[in-house]
Amino acid sequence: MDDFCQYNLFRKPRPALFIPPPYDKPSETHCERMQTPLLHLRATDPSKILLLCESLKDQCTMDLEAKINCYLMIEAECDCAFMAFFEVLPKLAVVKVMGVHALEPEIQLPTSDPAIATIGENKAGVNFAIENLPPVLLQQLEALKLDLEGGDIMAYPIFEQKHRNGIAEETSTLSLAVFIINSTRQKIFLKDIVQECFRFVLPILTSTIAFERQSKIKGRLQELLEIGRVLFDNLNDREQLLNKIMERGKCIFESERCDIYFIDEKQKNLEANVICNGKLVLDVVSKNQGVIGMSYTQNKLLNIENAHDNPLFLKSDDEKCAYHTRNILCFPIPHKEKVLGCIQMRNKFGGDFNVFDENITSYFATYVALAISQCEMLTQLRAKNARHDISNKLLLFQFDFREAEVEHLLNAQRHDLNGFNFPTFNSRTVPYHRIGVCMMKMFEDLNFIQKYKLERRALAKFLVLVQKGYFNHPYHNYDHAFSVAHFIYSTVCYLQLLERNVLTGLDVIALLIAAICHNVDHHGMSNPFRTVEESTFASLYSSSRSIMETHHFAQTMTILNSEGCNFLANFSSEDYSSIVSMIRGNIIATDYAEHLKHFKKQEILLTKNFKPRLLEHKLLFCALLMTCGDFVDHVRDWRTVRTAVAQMYEEYFRQGDLEREMGKVPNEMMDREKARIPLLQINLLKDVVLPPYELLVKVYPDMHFCIDAIYENITNWELSKAHFLQRVPSDATSIELLMGNQLSMTNFHSVEEEHHVETEESYVYDYDD
Asked: With 0-12 CB in 10 A as exposed, 13-18 as middle and 19+ as buried, what is 697?
């Protein structure tokens, strides 16, 4: 072997024809970096090791092991060679191939075994006596018909490599052990041949092992995706869903049994339906007892190899079911910061649960948690729908309906209110008891009752029940609904939208119904609050982002379909469906988040190429009218604006108080102690109210007075900043300051300029009813 024990590659020296200048001399560091390291091989033939490395093209670790083992058997002149790979989790030494024979099943040796533990302590190798070998390893060697009597068994440790500046360096982490059986070579030669071999093949082995692990994980993930599909196809039946989970769990973890335990909060126990002596029985386990209890209470995964030797294992479980548990993989089912229960896998086929099984538990538990929670949600939704149907039947009784109120709307005198059909008319001046009469007047003035043969009594009853469907909230009440409806009515009249065929009578009917009903059964809370609160509304309308608006539409249809209220009954089924669809779209349009989603499209279609006869254009225009109508209280005179804003913030503050009671921090708009109303209103007018009105004015310039009113109110709010900063009296609330005499128009002129100069701040106005 001396001929190739050491070799170097030399370059032909270049003659020094002249002395290079100083700047052309390579630095010492550069020379050191570019110098090719010498390669010393004491026992290995370079051509053979190169041929071996060239042959290691397989993507299967076992095939690579067989080729390396064959090379070592030839070079070491031994009867057998094999490798034991060390795994960290669990702590095992795994033998998959002996010589060229693949083992089925693989041999798993605990690293705590005295024979295995000594391998990493001596880099020169360990000479084993036959009696010191682990029994399972000895049995396999005997099965290969090897002569072990008086034989020689050597084990050499191979440590992980770290490459630095192109040179491989050993680390202290043990990667594998190489066993050489009955070699005729000297020990020093064996050590060199093994060390030099794995200097080149270890990177190939480790990369292939990593590739196999990633492929295995990928396969498991694909199985999980299939599990997700199967589970979510069985959400209607909880028992059927659990059976599917257990079947798939046994397949993916390759285990004999899969049991799912759920927590009973009242009894403080974990319960599961398990198979015991061929029968399905209820198994109850205390949450502070056993493997399942430990996994649940500590919310952690437990991988137990020898179940009967573990103090957590309850042997009575095996005794009562005539079953023998070898190993257990138990893990929790987390969902929304709580633990629903635990999944227990028992008896893995072909060995113990490994690190791959542990890695996949979190994904499997997530799928199970989602499937179970969705199944429970569907069950709850069915129950809520049933309760909802009952509440619909009781709706009329809750409204305390009186027939005399219908007669009043039918027979009350229709006063000729000055300027009632103009947008500048202040609808807030109409007394509450006259709102229903004015709504009837709108339908009469537009000639809808006669033209479409609407049933007057049904319309009157519908309006009475809608009015009773509004609660006595500070802002989202029947007064606000009437303001929106009047804006729609007066805009249609002022712009002659019917006469110009911009809108049809059916469109306007749908707009008026949507306007008067757009907040019916409003509970004074915003959509984000309803979502976070996980209220009944959020459960009922979980598929819609506009929770409250969807509820308003549902309540509208409930009233319309009540006995004696469907004044649209004379329309054809096609026209009726069209009206209902437009009512829904118009009510949803009052959700500001929906408005933002469609605003750019509205701006393009309505300003550049508005064609009212196209359905899409018409729906976008109607949505714009609803959005502007919802903000109409901000384009009134200053006195009306102050009153409406005071009512609006009083309602917001109530929600903020409720959020504070729930342990949450309300945003500034909802916080009665921190809200700076003038600054909030300026941002509201500029960022929220002004854009839709500017778009409306671009389409119909005759509505420019709305823009004038907005800018005038922005000025008024700018002037009111100083008063809020002074806070006189000091103990006055924001609402009291807003409604105080100091903010009347006559006192604005006395406010000095320097008092209302304030640093501009940027606020995101969370406007949402």
From this structure: middle
CA distance linking residue 650 with residue 658, whole number of Å: 13
Average pLDDT over residues 447-473: 90
Question: Which pairs count as long-range contacts for 648-654, CB under 8 Å and 24+ apart, including other chains?
Answer: 648/474, 648/475, 649/675, 649/677, 649/734, 649/735, 649/738, 650/474, 650/475, 650/735, 651/473, 651/474, 651/475, 651/476, 651/524, 653/735, 654/474, 654/524
Please name which of 180, 190, 10 lies closest in space to residue 84, comparing C-alpha atoms: 180
Residue 711: in which H helix or E strand, if any? helix 704-726
Q: DSSP labels for 335-365?
A: ETTEEEEEEEEEEETTS---HHHHHHHHHHH
* Sheet architecture: strand order including 153-164: 101-110, 92-98, 80-87, 167-181, 153-164, 126-128
Residue 353 CB-half CA count within 13 A: 30
> Across all residues in the chain, what is the average pLDDT?
82
3-state SS assignment for residue 15 = coil
What is the CB neighbour count within 10 angstroms for residue 764?
A: 9
How far apart are the C-alpha atoms of 190 and 604, rounded to whole Å? 82
Give 470's DSSP letter. S
- Four-point Cα dihedral 364, 369, 370, 373, nearest 10: 160
Q: Distance (Å, rounded) from C-alpha 513 to C-alpha 479?
A: 15
Look up tokens 């929304």; give the residue.
336
Give residue 156's identity as a one-letter amino acid code: Y
From CA 652, how far away is CA 673, in angstroms rounded? 12
Neighbouring C-alpha atoms within 13 Å toward the C-beta of 296: 25
What's residue 511's pLDDT?
A: 95
| Contact (CB, 8 A) for 261 and 269 | no
What is the residue-wise DSSP string for 541-580?
TTT-S-HHHHHHHHHHHHHHTSTTT-TTTTS-HHHHHHHH
Spatial separation of the C-alpha atoms in residues 518 and 525, rounded to whole Å: 14
Bridge-based pairing of strands 39-40 and 167-181 is unpaired
Cα–Cα distance for residue pair 590/726, rounded to 1 Å: 36
Q: What is the pLDDT of residue 114?
A: 85
Which tokens go with 103? 């083992």
- Tell whether the model's pLDDT for residue 397 goes beyond 60: no
Distance between CA 411 and CA 405 in Å, rounded?
A: 10
Residues 6+ apart with CB under 8 A from 317: 283, 290, 323, 325
What are φ and ψ of residue 183, in 5° steps? -90, 145
Q: Check if the beta carbon of residue 190 is closer than 8 Å to that of residue 77.
A: no
| pLDDT value, residue 85 | 93
**Do 227 and 343 touch, CB atoms closer than 8 A?**
no
The rounded distance, in Å, linking the Cα atoms of 642 and 647 is 9
Confidence of residue 36 (pLDDT cuts 50, 70, 90): low
Q: Map tokens 């043990």 to a residue.
A: 174
Rg (C-alpha) for the chain, rounded Å, is 41
User: If you ran DSSP here, which 8-state letter would residue 686 be given?
Assistant: I
